[in-house]
From TrEMBL:
UniProtKB keywords: Oxidoreductase
Annotated protein name in UniProt: Phenylacetic acid degradation bifunctional protein PaaZ
Domain MaoC-like, chain residue ranges per copy: 539-639
Domain Aldehyde dehydrogenase: from-to ranges: 12-499
Pfam families documented for this protein: Aldedh, MaoC_dehydratas
InterPro entries associated with the record: Ald_DH/histidinol_DH, Ald_DH_C, Ald_DH_N, Aldehyde_DH_dom, HotDog_dom_sf, MaoC-like_dom, PaaN-DH
Keyword rRNA processing part of the UniProt annotation: no
């Protein structure tokens, strides 16, 4: 039987013991063996802290985000084999989708957050700068850096893929190396996904390690700077947290434990209302998805006392319609528990519930293409606690399977009180169309819940459901739920980061943070900052504008244009008791006038105004005042772009507007999209001619078989096709891939050297020469390139067919030629 290998200190290592046999939860057949005996955990942790930390922490947040995306794409291409393994854990196709593609989705989400919101530096400036001296020569701020240690991540058996990836998404993005320790049950699926992550070659050495089996004494070796993330039972979690190695060192510990989550049906949601039907459907789903093996499943069903019978009847009917059996069968809607051991544990908890509460529904016992003897199947079970304020078993005992308890309440006060008797939950839901009931109940129960999900007819179609943690929202809960926090958007990274206060002068803080601080030295040059590409802009690049004297006419005109006729701008007789001496210029006129002073009108790298932040007006500006603007590059944010967007980054500019007395009247931060420098040659006739001057008959290509003249005539042919001379009669790219190929014209990736042109003959016969010699070919090429430039100035809407990219317009043809020319000019060493 295959033994799952562990991946530690950069090697795949097999345990030396007998290990734990792992069984197919549906058929009972053995699938694999997990074994960690003989592993050197101390060496594994040290390897992560040294090699892994060095490699990950030196990357920027932006680059780590790109890394997550590449890993997710790599895994997505191989998802079929993960589904085949997931069925063996008892999961249906939908269960597997939540686990597998939900895990990939978490990587994608965090990649997107990183590329939109995190800096292209290995550290992260957190919060605003604090002025801590009277004259602003001494400032303070905070930076976040990766905690110098390794993260040990202990996951539960119910989500072998998502459980691993949701923790890795934040630790890897934060720059902290991790050791993944899945539950042995289902670890063969975790192992398969992990193998592909390593084989992708995308993750740096030491970034991740895998321990498949018992954790042994791995926690004995944790030390200051390390962290432990645990998902599982609250009892086990508390034991781990109290270990001397954990409690006695500065080891960060995050626990996400199972909890007795509830769902509350609103007082008004009687049978026949959309909310009643939604409630029944939601409870049924949460009892049966993953066979109830979800830390977010509904364990307590809190219902108005007059609706207990209606809910019992409707829910029993809905559960009757849920076919149980082999996940590979199309009829099956609920699979099995993960194994016989878990089955016995759930039965033990059911017996405890029976001691105080009544089992009122025991499910349909027929199985689809499966049997109870070999598989770990269990029918859904519904209990009734008729006195939930007296009988506490429902609030104390969790059966981690398709088991839930129905209980009555009288009013919103009681509903909230019952919700809180779970002593801390990951999630509680309220299904109601009564805003007042929802508001009163939710804020009263919020102190005991990590998430509150409200469902009604308005959000039902787009709802993600009671049991679905989302990457952008916190997953965790107080009390019994562990007191931990995972994900929650960028907040999820803070667990892995060290926050450090930085104090110093404006110049020092600018140097450390790479964000311009007011009062730091400005860098002036003859080149307007808006004439610089993203790569050329440096933090501190500045511009001092000419002055502009504000007139009464400016104020009147802006009132008429904007329709802002606020009395302070238009009525000098109404200013008594205000802060103004006379009619004052509009704040947004000052900002607009400032933009008029600092923008560069000529087309350049700045693509668009991207936004406005932190705009404040400090002093009034009256007619006769003269304003001057200081524009300074404050911060640069790299930006991932998709589709047909020009590769660009965001530059934040500090705008300081002063009056003739050097008093600051307005400060704002504007954001601009700034194009990145293209690696491709401009369609500038002088530049192209200069490059061609270096091409002779004896010039040898660095790759390929073209002669210099064949290359020039090949490019000339492409130019003629873009003029419709001749019009290409077909495109060789399949229609369904055409948009993707056209999008590729806009990115800065170069053409591959080994690209097989589909329109050339199969025997790779090159184009026959049309011109007598190379010099004539070069001149003809330049003449036709000049014609191309003139043609599209005179016919800007023209479109012509390309053999690879389909019908292209002026912009696309220019992009295509720039890439194509660069490709072949580099082939012959001309640029």
């Amino acid at each position: 039987m295959e033994k799952l290998k562990n991946y530690i200190y950069g090697e795949w290592i097999e345990g030396s013991g007998n290990g734990i046999p792992l069984y197919n939860a549906v058929t009972g057949e053995q699938v694999a063996v997990s074994d960690t005996e003989g592993l050197n955990f101390e060496q594994a942790l040290d390897y992560g802290r040294t090699i892994g930390y060095k490699n990950l922490s030196s990357m920027t947040f932006y680059d780590r985000g790109e890394m997550l995306k590449k890993v997710a794409l790599y895994l997505l291409e191989r998802k079929k084999k993960y589904y085949e393994l997931s069925y063996k854990t008892g999961a249906t196709h939908i269960d597997s989708w939540v686990d597998i593609e939900g895990g990939f989705g978490t990587f994608f989400t965090y990649s997107g957050l990183a590329k939109r919101m995190l800096p292209n530096t290995p550290f992260w400036v957190d919060g605003d700068t604090q002025k801590i001296s009277a004259n602003g020569t001494h400032l303070g701020t905070h930076i976040l850096t990766p905690s110098e240690g390794v993260s040990i991540q202990i996951n539960a058996y119910n989500f072998p893929v998502w459980g691993m990836l949701e923790k890795l998404s934040t630790s890897l993005l934060a720059g902290v190396p991790s050791i993944v320790k899945p539950s042995p049950f289902g670890s063969y699926l975790t192992n398969a996904v992990f193998q592909d992550m390593i084989e992708s070659g995308i993750l740096p050495e030491g970034a991740v390690q895998l321990v498949c089996g018992e954790p042994g004494n791995i926690l004995d070796y944790v030390q200051d700077g390390d962290s432990v993330l645990f998902t599982g039972s609250a009892t086990t979690g508390r034991k781990l947290k109290s270990l001397s190695s954990v409690a006695g060192n500065a080891v960060r510990f995050n626990m996400e434990a199972d909890s007795l989550n509830c769902s509350i049906l609103g007082l008004e949601a009687k049978p026949g209302t959309p909310e009643f039907d939604l409630f029944i459907k939601e409870v049924r789903n949460e009892m049966t998805t993953k066979a109830g093996q979800k830390c977010t499943a509904i364990r307590r069903i809190i219902v108005p006392e007059h609706l207990i019978g209606d809910v019992q009847q409707a829910l029993s009917k809905a559960l009757d319609q849920t076919k149980i059996g082999n996940p590979l069968s199309r009829e099956t809607r609920m699979g099995s528990l993960v194994g016989k051991q878990q089955y016995e544990e759930v039965l033990r908890k059911i017996d405890m519930l029976k001691a105080e509460t009544e089992l009122i529904y025991d499910g349909q016992h027929e199985l689809v293409d499966a049997d109870y003897e070999n598989g770990a199947f269990m029918s859904p079970k519904l209990f009734l606690n008729d006195r939930p304020f007296e009988k506490n078993i429902s609030h104390d005992v969790e059966a981690f399977g398709p088991v839930s308890t129905l209980m009555p309440y009288k009013d919103a006060e009681e509903a909230a009180a019952l919700a809180k008797r779970g002593k801390g939950s990951l999630v509680g839901s309220i299904v109601s169309y009564d805003d007042q009931f929802v508001a009163e109940t939710s804020w009263k129960m919020a102190s005991h819940h990590g998430r509150i999900f409200v469902l009604n007819r308005d959000n039902a179609k787009e709802s993600t459901g009671h049991g679905s943690p989302l990457p952008t929202l916190m997953h965790g809960g107080p009390g019994r739920a562990g007191g931990g926090e995972e994900m929650g958007g960028l907040n999820g990274l803070h667990f892995f980061l060290q926050k450090t206060a930085i104090q110093g002068s404006p110049d020092i803080l600018t140097a450390i943070t790479k964000v311009y601080q007011q009062g730091a030295e400005k860098k002036y040059s003859d080149k307007h900052p808006f004439r610089k590409y993203f790569e050329e802009v440096e933090v501190g690049d500045s511009l001092e504008t000419a002055g502009r004297t504000v007139t009464d006419a400016d104020i009147v005109n802006f009132s008429n244009v904007s329709w802002d006729h606020f009395y302070a701008h238009t009525d000098a007789t109404s200013l008594t008791g205000t802060i103004f001496d006379k009619t004052v210029a509009h704040g947004y006129f000052i900002l607009s006038a400032a933009a008029g002073l600092f923008v560069s009108g000529k087309k350049g790298p700045v693509i668009a105004n991207y936004g406005l932040e932190n705009c404040s007006f400090f002093k009034p500006v009256y007619a006769g005042d003269t304003i001057t603007v200081y524009l300074t590059a404050k911060e640069k944010i790299n930006r991932g772009v998709k589709g047909r967007n020009i590769p660009s980054g965001v530059v934040k500019w500090l705008v300081e507007v002063v009056n003739q007395r050097d008093e600051i009247v307005c400060v704002a931060t504007i954001l601009t999209l700034v194009a990145k420098q293209s690696p491709f040659i401009d369609l500038n006739l002088k530049n192209i001619q200069k490059a061609l001057n270096g091409l002779t008959e004896s010039t040898q290509p660095d790759w390929g078989k073209m002669s210099p003249q064949q290359m020039i005539e090949h490019l000339e042919h492409g130019v003629l096709v873009s003029l419709g001379e001749p019009e290409a009669d077909k495109c060789f790219t399949p229609e369904e891939q055409l948009e993707k190929w056209q999008d590729s014209l806009y990115n800065h990736r170069k053409m591959p050297k080994d690209f097989p042109a589909p329109f050339l003959a199969e025997d790779e016969k090159l184009l026959e020469l049309r011109h007598k010699n190379l010099e004539i070919a070069k001149q003809s090429f330049m003449d036709n390139l000049k014609r191309f430039i003139i043609y599209y100035k005179e016919n800007p809407q023209a479109e012509h067919m390309n053999f690879v990219f389909g019908k292209l317009n002026k912009e696309m043809w220019e992009l295509m030629h720039r890439k194509h020319f660069t490709h072949h000019f580099e082939q012959f060493g001309l640029i």
